[in-house]
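RECORD TYPE: protein structure
NAME: GNAT family N-acetyltransferase
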Amino acid sequence: MKVSILKKNDFEKMKDLFLDVFTNEPWFDKWNNEEQLHAYLTELTENNNSLTLALYSEEGELIGCALGYIFNWWEGREYFIREFFISRKRQNQGLGSSFLQLMNEILNEKEIKHITLTTEKNVPAYGFYHKNGFSDLKDSVNLVKKV
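PREDICTED:
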């Protein structure tokens, strides 16, 4: 396996993979609007501070992605992962954990000190992240307000 910046010509493959993962269990996201989906993924991958990492199989098949952005904080640079996903047919084989480990080389080159992300507590991803060294921030909470 190899981790690199997502190749520009793999954007559509990434979009298909994203849809397959997140419109199925346990997420069941309703991405019915193609323009909204395209805008969302473009905003995540094409901003000045975006960092889109891809996991490729030995055969060069795109099998996972981490979509996020880098920002500077008083403790140093951080990578905020907005979306992290592995192909459904390749899940539960240790590839997500391997992906996180392999990402470290790129993150170290970019002098990133922390990875932050959010997920729901009632999905398997929560346990996965804990198993891979993430912890809940004791004094932080996510807030949302409907407009």
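COMMENT: The domain at 2-131 is CATH 3.40.630.30 (Aminopeptidase).
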